[in-house]
Design goal:
It contains 6 helices and 11 strands. It has helices spanning 9-17, 35-43, 76-82, 109-116, 140-150, 177-191, and strands spanning 25-27, 48-50, 63-65, 88-95, 100-106, 130-137, 159-162, 165-168, 172-173, 196-200, 221-222. The chain is elongated. InterPro entries: Phage_T5_Orf172_DNA-bd.
């Protein structure tokens, strides 16, 4: 646990309401959300900073996510980060029509891949998504985030519209399958991440060795 100061009743209520475990909290001790603070949070496997400077919308809000967002304003970020230490699967999927690689995580790999190609979904506007790699992890959210960080230069800022609001999916990349797989391997060798129940469709991989291109913005699509 990295809480050093006693929480106020308001803060305790917020943590209890959203079921945030104490071991995911980091006491910022009044600091702003600097890169140094983010690094310290990463090193301690925490994703919510407590006792930060107030947010721009409400000075009484003093929590920040490891990404620098205010979870009190953007409560939708909480569920995503709580997945940091949940067991599940990380996966690599590819679309030949879109020449895109998707890196994500899920608790049900079969249903997730099916959902990408459903007529109402057509993730990123394509219906030919194929599962190329999957592996089980005890920290699906953290693993996904770390892999995506390693591929950041190839990230496609694809905007998905939900309930009239456009948000970045954060899971699409203009890169080869090998580059995405290398990012996973790097976590195993450099940061001692452990992946089990590994499945790789080696016979399909040659068709998904797309060019490694710098990030660019995609046209927004509607997801229901």
């Amino acid at each position: 646990m990295t809480i050093k100061h006693v929480l106020t009743k308001t803060q305790e209520s917020f943590i209890k309401k959203h079921k945030i475990p104490a071991d995911l909290l980091f006491d910022a001790q009044g600091e702003g959300m600097t890169e140094e603070l983010k690094q310290r949070m990463s090193e301690t496997n925490t994703v919510f900073a407590y006792n930060t400077v107030g947010c721009t919308k409400d000075d009484n809000h003093n929590f920040k996510t490891i990404g620098g967002h205010c979870p009190q304003c953007e409560t939708g970020k909480i569920a995503i980060l709580l997945r940091e230490h949940e067991a599940g699967f990380i996966y690599i999927a590819g679309s030949r029509k879109g020449t895109l690689i998707k890196v994500g995580s899920t608790s049900n790999i079969i249903d997730r891949i099916k959902s990408l190609n459903m007529p109402k979904t057509r993730y990123a506007g394509f219906d030919d998504w194929v599962l190329l790699f999957d592996a089980r992890t005890t920290t699906q959210g953290r693993s996904e985030r770390k892999i995506q960080q390693k591929l950041s230069e190839n990230k496609v800022n694809y905007l998905v519209e939900k309930s009239g609001k456009a948000t970045d999916s954060g899971e699409l990349f203009r890169c080869s399958y090998n580059k995405a797989k290398d990012a996973i391997t790097a976590l195993e060798t450099e940061e001692s991440f452990e992946f089990t129940q590994v499945h790789e469709k080696r016979d399909l991989i040659p068709d998904y060795q797309f060019k490694n291109l710098k990030a660019r913005v995609q046209v927004a699509a509607v997801e229901v």
